[in-house]
């Protein structure tokens, strides 16, 4: 059966999609908010990320997309391990600090929120909804980003309460 024609504008196949159009469409994707952390020779580092996805449960594997322009990007490759902290609704200030707001860098960011050392010796956010403790099994550069593939070696389940999400360039609670 024929699909009905969409009334909205669309881009012709075969032409490059303009980055602004792509970003606008992606801003309509509801995404959970995480802070990805590591601890390497350079000390602790972390950044806020919505580009997190499950790859498999056998064995438990996930991926994170890390912009190579982020100052701590090399630290994530070198350390070979990272933690994915899924944020609760009341942890928006942590998301902002690790998203670069306020100009906090490196270790300074850990002054926002309560942090402790987790299963693999990685910085874990106290009160996070869940924490995935990962060993880096593959890092592939695609366009502007490093796609970090992590084998999940431990999981910490926090209280199952309201979560922080990102939609339309703003935070919301789900
Ligand atoms: C809600 C939100 C989601 C973000 N998602 C990502 C992401 O998935 N991947 C990424 O590389 N950067 C993401 N960022 C941007 C990085 O957190 C930001 O560029 C980084 O903290 C800058 O670090 P630097 O100042 O040390 O370079 C996101 C920021 C916010 C506020």
Description:
It holds the Pfam family Flavin_Reduct. It comes from Ancylobacter polymorphus. Keywords: Oxidoreductase. This is Flavin reductase (DIM6/NTAB) family NADH-FMN oxidoreductase RutF. Residues 26-173 form the Flavin reductase like domain. The chain is mainly β and 174 residues long. The protein has a single domain (19-168), classed as Electron Transport, Fmn-binding Protein, Chain A (Pnp Oxidase, Chain A, Roll), CATH 2.30.110. Helices cover 13% and strands 44% of the residues. It contains three helices and twelve strands; from the N terminus they run αβββββαβαββββββ. The strands form three sheets. A seven-stranded antiparallel beta sheet has the order 3-2-6-9-10-5-4, with helices on both faces. A three-stranded antiparallel beta sheet has the order 1-11-12, with no helix packed on it. The chain has a two-stranded antiparallel ribbon with strand order 7-8. Strand 11 (164-167) and strand 12 form a beta hairpin. The longest helix is centred in the N-terminal third of the chain and has 8 residues, at 19-26. It is globular. The protein starts with 18 loop residues before the first helix and ends with a strand. The model has no long low-confidence stretch (mean pLDDT 94). It binds flavin mononucleotide. Residues 33, 47-51, 65-67, 70-72, 95, 98-100, 105, 166 line the site of flavin mononucleotide.
């Amino acid at each position: 059966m024929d699909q009905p024609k969409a009334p909205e504008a669309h881009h012709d196949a075969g032409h490059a999609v303009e980055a602004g159009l792509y970003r606008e469409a992606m801003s309509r994707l509801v995404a959970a908010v995480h802070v990805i952390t590591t601890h390497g020779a350079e000390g602790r580092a972390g950044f806020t990320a919505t580009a997190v996805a499950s790859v498999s449960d056998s064995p438990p594997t996930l991926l994170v997309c890390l912009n190579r322009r982020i100052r701590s990007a090399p630290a994530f490759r070198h350390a070979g391990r990272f933690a994915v902290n899924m944020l609760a609704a009341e942890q928006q200030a942590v998301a902002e600090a690790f998203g670069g707001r306020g100009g906090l860098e490196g270790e300074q960011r850990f002054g926002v929120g309560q942090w402790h050392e987790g299963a693999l010796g990685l910085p874990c956010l106290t009160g996070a909804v869940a924490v995935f403790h990962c060993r880096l099994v593959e890092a592939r550069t695609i366009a502007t980003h490093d796609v970090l593939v992590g084998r999940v070696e431990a999981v910490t389940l926090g209280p199952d309460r309201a979560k922080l999400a990102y939609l339309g360039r703003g935070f919301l609670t789900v």
